Amino acid sequence: MNKNKITLSLAAAVTLGLSTNAMAAGFQLAEYSATGLGRAFAGEAAMADNASAQFRNPAMMTYLEGTQISTGAIYVDPNIDVKGQTKFGPMSYQTESKDIANSAVIPNFYLSHQINDQWVAGLAIATNFGMETDLGTDFYGSQFGNQAMVKSVEINPNLAYKINDEFSIGGGVRYVMGEGHFGASMPNSLPAEIEPALGALANFKGKDLKYMEGDDEAWGWQLGAAWQINPDHRVGVNYRSEVNFNLEGQASGLSYTGASGVMTGKTLPGSMKLTLPATAEIASYHQLTEKLAMHASFNWTDWSSFEKLVAVIPGHPSSPDTIKVENWKDNYRLAVGTTYQLNNKLALRSGVAYDTSAVDDQYRTQTIPETDRLWLSLGAGYAWSENLTFDAGFTYIFAKDASMKEELDLNHDKKADTTFSGETTGNVWLVGVQASYRF
Predict the structure, then answer these.
(1) In terms of CB atoms within 10 Å, which of 65, 267, 281, 325 comes out highest?
(2) How far apart are CA 126 and CA 120, in angstroms?
(3) Distance between CA 257 and CA 212 in Å, rounded?
(4) Percent of the chain, pLDDT > 90?
(5) Residue numbers of the domain that contains 355
């Protein structure tokens, strides 16, 4: 990745997070395997279906024999709309942007190798954060943010140790790479009667107010443990550290360079700090009958660490520039699932999960319409042979309707020149496939 491009955007794109595209709270992704997708990722820290288990709890690799490879992808199709009323001074106009969150394919790759009866090593290549949105410049609220993208890849080597038949531990380091962009612009078209109220800004229809792009990388770690209570019941726990980015790069737009800077394409250096939050999970697995098992998870994410984003642009009069005040809170997720072994070839999965919002109603804005989500999932695993298994999963997510309000001082006269109040509505569906091979 080009270090000269700013990961300001990796942070600033978060300010346009539109978390319904990310499928978990905030801009977090849960989609690490199609195997887990089929049960709404219930019980993940206590499951050991294949080598993908290490991404949610490296200790579970002690349940895998020999050398195993698992790879797959999940297709995410969000259908999210934003509509409401934009006010320019005393005048109000209805506006709407449909299907703002872009579809994406999220791939993964996992490898585990049993060194001996006690030690297992593994490698995970997957993602934990990502989103892409585009509200377009025809939307009358584009000045609050109209496009954003974050892509991240995590390379995660792990090591697990089986203490005895009851207890296992594991851990690993996380190397996270990210890239993205963020943009806010004046609407492409404006009602003629409001142009006098905007003054010189009316000459910049469709022009960028702020645009940032770039990339960065950072390190983190994870630790996990498993307790096999008896042959039919076990508990797993996992903790993933926060990841701190020190973002450096470039920014452009009317807000940073003035009118001439926008027209000439001038850019300025900038930096921003961003913390990807810590997460924790406690999960359980219960073999109720010979064929039926149940599993559950409780997840926590330290979103309260996400208070605001501040950009430092050397030499610019507005530096440090507060991009967004967030005031987020910790998020919780509860999931329950089942696995039914129909025969020696076919396993059927199902699950339901509930994600709580990472922001209170009074702090929700157009740029991050964060809200509660309900997951309904179905999946299956088919043993093609003794060594090769295929898995598939399907999930439908109901995103709770969420209200929002935004204000912006375009003329820097300490008055709200324009406001947006409205709501976001939508749903998401996901489908994934996974192939796992045991040597």
Answers:
(1) 281
(2) 19
(3) 13
(4) 46
(5) 8-438
**Is 379 inside any structural domain?**
yes
Domain-embedded: residue 3: no
Q: Is residue 12 part of a domain?
A: yes
Other CB atoms within a 10 A radius of the CB of residue 4 amount to 11
| pLDDT tens digits along 73-124 | 999 998 888 888 888 777 888 888 888 888 888 999 999 999 999 999 999 9
d(CA 195, CA 197): 5
Non-local CB neighbours of 167 within 8 Å, separated by 6+ positions: 225, 226, 227, 228
Reported pTM:
0.87
Q: For residue 107, say if its preceding peptide bond is cis, omega within 30 degrees of 0.
A: no
How many residues in total does the chain contain?
439
Three-state SS string over 193-250 comes to HHHHHHHHHHHHCCCEEEEEEEEEEEEEEEEEEEEEEECCEEEEEEEECCEEEEEEEE
User: Each residue of 226-263: pLDDT tens digit?
Assistant: 999 999 999 999 999 999 888 888 888 877 765 555 44
Terminal Cα-to-Cα distance of the chain (whole angstroms)? 34
Phi, psi of 61 (to 5 degrees): -65, -20
- The 10 Å Cβ neighbour count of residue 87 is 17
CA separation for the pair 313, 215 (Å, rounded): 17
CATH number, domain at 219? 2.40.160.60
Q: How many domains does the chain have?
A: 1
- Is there a contact between 217 and 177 (Cβ–Cβ < 8 Å)? yes
